[in-house]
Amino acid sequence: MGKTTSGVSVIGAGESPYTRHPASGTTTQGVLADAVRRALADANLRTSEVDGFGVCSFTLGPDHAVDLAWRLGLRLRWLMQDTNGGASAGTMLQHAVRAVEAGDASVVVLVAGDLMDQQVHLRMVAEYNRATAEHLVPLDMLGPNALFALLTQRQMVAEGLTRTDYGRLAVAQRAWAGLNPGAVYRKPMTLDDYLNAPMVAEPLGRYDCVPPVTGADAVVVVADERAAGTRRARVLAVSARYNSDDQTGDGLVTGLADCAPELWETTGHGPADVDVVSVYDDYPAMALAQLKDLGLVAGGGMPAFIAERLATRKLAVNTSGGQLSAGQPGSAGGMHGLVETVRQLRGQAGQRQIDARLGLFSGYGMVLYRYGACATAGLLEAAA
Amino acid sequence: MSVIVQNCRTCGGQWFPARLMCPRCGGADLAPVGVERGVVEQLTHLGDVVIASVACDPEPLLVARLHGTVAVGDVVELTDRPDAFDRPDASGRPVAFVPPSGRSREESS
């Protein structure tokens, strides 16, 4: 059972612009620093006021969190380094909220990001973990596309979905991306574009797979009393599950199925109260699995939910375009949804701004052998 | 032909990849056992490479590479030898390759 949080808010968010082809000389440290700088400027704070810092990056090595803090000129009393990739935002936010509540830190910056050119990406997917290196790479299988193709086939059977259903999700996210100057793919996409794209691993085509980008995302977390009078996103609850099923299931239910009741019970809200949602869309199937686990797919079944709520964009899901259209910046993918949720709740979402009071974000990731094993979610509320 | 998985001598659970303790009972007595066959649950193509989810009876679930003409629901012979495709099994069944860990490769050779 989770505990409600008290008096902790996100008061700033920043994103180092995503790019498919980073300029020569671009470094992981450089894009992380850029996101930190932008988030602090957004929060109207100076580095000298930061006393807590958390980072998740696959490509920071051989440096660690303290090296990055040093290079940023941060003198700290609270420091963490996270490794949960797509779930890192929730992991770090869960810790940061408690640190601020406990008084161990008062201003925490959380950042995630990676330099992700093709060479780095290939090395990362080949050496993702021991199981990948020993049991998947020797199959001549580089990267998780085939695993999620198998999972998507299971979901199609279980939920009665067709490729057209997944296409509707991808097309809707591309429409949101058209309103986000920070998305790498903004040109409108039709269902035919989706269905006629080259096959990657059936049933997954090109537009089911996220484009790797270089970039970073950061947020600033503070005690509420420090945020008085500023437009902020109050953290109502954060919940996490790791290795919820020992990889023995079908992968269609994530740890979020256990996080969601905790979020609702501790806050007194329910899925119907949520105005804006960011789920981790490494593949459309996983975006749908998370929406279901979070309780957002009401009675009528998944195909009807997609047609009536997602395709129409009546339910505001992945308003940045998500990773499918905005890009997947390595481990910053985990922070991308939190940044978008904060922007929506703080009224900073530009053309894609919706009238949002309650925002929900979720993260998912770290494929162990058959599917991802880390799941985190948080509920935030607009406050002034 | 077979693939080496872990068998928990306390609860009978079967695991792959190798665990450090039995996820079901917490036992530490995990012994290598050979599993010879499985059923193809789903399959997909990465170019010419056929990747499948293969279910052993009663467990574990494996990620394998298939060779030849295989359909969902087919029984496949499991092997941890990458060259087994060149030497079809006498059974005539299709072959599914599951790469072993460094340790079980030594144990099985």
TrEMBL record, chain A:
Gene3D superfamilies: 3.40.47.10. Residues 246-368 form the Thiolase C-terminal domain. InterPro entries: Thiolase, Thiolase-like, Thiolase_C_2. It holds the Pfam family Thiolase_C_1. One of its GO terms (molecular function) is acyltransferase activity, transferring groups other than amino-acyl groups. Residues 1-26 are annotated as: Disordered. It comes from the Bacteria. PANTHER family: ACETYL-COA C-ACETYLTRANSFERASE (PTHR42870), NON-SPECIFIC LIPID-TRANSFER PROTEIN-LIKE 2 (PTHR42870:SF1). This is Thiolase family protein.
From TrEMBL, chain B:
Residues 83-109 are annotated as: Disordered. Residues 4-30 form the ChsH2 rubredoxin-like zinc ribbon domain. InterPro entries: ChsH2_Znr, NA-bd_OB-fold. This is Rubredoxin. It comes from Streptomyces apricus.
